[in-house]
Amino acid sequence: MGQAMFAQFQRETFSSESTGMVASGVAAVHGISGPTALASVTSRPTATPWAMFLWSLLLLMSQARDAHLECGERPMFARGAQYSRITGGIEAGVGEFPWQVSIQARNEHFCGGAILNEWWIITAAHCFYPEQLPPTDLRVVLGTTSLSSPSLEIKGVTTIIRHKDFQRVSMDNDVALLMLDNPITFNELKEPICLPMQPGLSQWHKCWVAGWGQVKSGLNQPMETELLKAPMTIMNWDKCFKEFPKLTKNMLCAGYENESYDSCQGDSGGPLACTQESGKKWYHVGIISWGRSCGLKNTPGIYTLLENYHSWIKKVTELEGRPFRAEQMVGTSKQKAKVSRASEFPKPGSPTLWLLLCLLPYATF
């Protein structure tokens, strides 16, 4: 509804004694005070229990919607999801990586990715090079650990945005964004991952990679249908540079000394998810990019250092009309507890407010 309809709605509600309660609600939202607001309050009928129930229900709906905007959490796995060992890695638990997605073409998995918010998936630019796949040929599978499940949630893609300075030879700036054709409805199986708010790799305590890629090197190796995970440790950049001279400052190295854990073909684009020692949130620290082979002992894999791309993500998402704000996704339970009752009221122009204003006149009789 536009501003004109809202203005007409205000005139009708203020002129009617029977709908004075709605007028007082509008006055409260827009900060109206004085005799007009007081008259509307004193002339309204007493709210019925049904009206109070409706009011509470809509506020709870609004708060539940906002709660799922928080990133980096995995409530289902935190309650005790189990995993089992399988050949070549560790099977991920249900809900353990709720931000993980499978990017597919012609119904076949070829790259991983991670949920940034309800509209955006972040992945690797090299997944779309050299073949220029049209967005309509892609689909994103989310909310599952098994690609063989009979019921998969699938989203279409409207836009592919590769970093304009991506270089295939050096693999520098290996980052891309996919815009979905309709927004994700978050739940315990589908949650966004946080982006790091402060630079520096020393802050990360525990890291994992996950994917549906190959478990052995080779062009003819089959892809996995179950999501596998492997523990990672971030390695010293200077030490890694000696082994990989084409390493740039937009990259980081991660591996697992004396073990064969690594990412492989088909895992590209997936996140290196890390948490801080004192926190329970998970952050997207690096994008799986390239390496020498799969699972060589004492040989790290190379990842796109995501902390270098905050401004790029902000800029391109704004240009596409679906802006992403990393700082809005990160919150704490303490911050939520400090929210005042006034700030819980639905925002002007929001669907929740319109529903509230339209239904309350019928609930007060």
TrEMBL record:
> Has keyword Disulfide bond?
yes
**Metal-binding is among the record's keywords:** no
One GO biological process this protein is involved in is: proteolysis
| Peptidase S1 domain span | 86-318
Q: Which Gene Ontology molecular-function terms are recorded?
A: serine-type endopeptidase activity
Going by the entry's taxonomy, the superkingdom of the source organism is recorded as: Eukaryota
> A single Pfam family, by name?
Trypsin
Q: Which UniProt keywords apply?
A: Disulfide bond, Hydrolase, Protease, Serine protease
Protein's UniProt name: Serine protease 55
